[in-house]
Amino acid sequence: MMRILLLGGTGDALKIARQLGPDHVYSLAGLGKVPDDLACAVRVGGFGGSAGMARYIEHERIGLVIDATHPYAAQISANAMQASRAARVPCWALRRPGWQPQDGDAWRMVDDWRELSVLLAAFKRPLFTLGREPLAHLDDIPPHQFWTVRCLDPHEGNARARILATRGPFTLEGERALFSAEAFDVVVSKNSGGSATEAKLEVARERGLPVVMLRRPELPAADREFGDVAELLGAWRRISS
């Protein structure tokens, strides 16, 4: 049997992990809750770069690496490709399509935090859905702003920031209630794609709110790339049958 090393970090990765038996390994960075109901082995923590991952692949006799990490985890994806090549095993990647602007959307694209900060100067109550990055900037919040930061990491925030430590999926009804209660005037997001966190964009559209969208990083080309979980699992079943 071809042993799989699944690199996780998204809800889609967990869907794949639930289809894997005890011979396979699901590797997580250790952020958030670690699943305890899987048949496959679960590994938590880093590998020590691409060289460390290559050694792990060889030592554990891995026959296929599946990169199902977050679309913005560019370094991990690069390490996965380099390690698989060094160990001479194939690397498949789940490349979830990004969201596309629709009629009524007012997206403003940025490449980094500096550009984002410049654009946000005109607003008072942003909702950040970038993960933990805004937590490093809580001491730099302009006096005219109050931030709401939604991420996995609990944090006490401060007088001008509220931290919502929560995990999707988020419903349309729940997002409507949150937006109504907090009176956001701009949404800050990564273009993660998928349905789990898309409802915020629909509510922003309904309310006529601008969205500051962080562009996706360029990811290395994998040996095979798949747009959804079903397509990837179908290909794996065909080669393992």
Number of strand elements: 12
CA radius of gyration is 19 Å
Q: What is the CATH C level class of the largest domain, in words?
A: Alpha Beta
- Continuous helix count: 7
Structural class: alpha/beta
Examine the coordinates and then state which fold CATH places here, giving the name of the CATH topology of the largest domain: Rossmann fold
- CATH architecture name of the largest domain: 3-Layer(aba) Sandwich
Instruction: Give a short account of the largest sheet.
Output: 6 strands, parallel
Strand content: 15-25%
Which homologous superfamily in CATH is the superfamily of the largest domain? NAD(P)-binding Rossmann-like Domain
Largest beta sheet: what is the strand line-up?
A: 3-2-1-4-5-12
Q: What coarse outline follows from CA principal-axis ratios?
A: elongated
Question: Mean pLDDT score, rounded?
Answer: 93
Note poorly predicted spans.
none
Helix content: 25-40%
> H/E series, N to C?
EHEEHEHEEHEEEHEHEEH
Instruction: Calculate the terminal CA-CA distance, rounded to whole Å.
Output: 9 Å
The domain tally reads 2
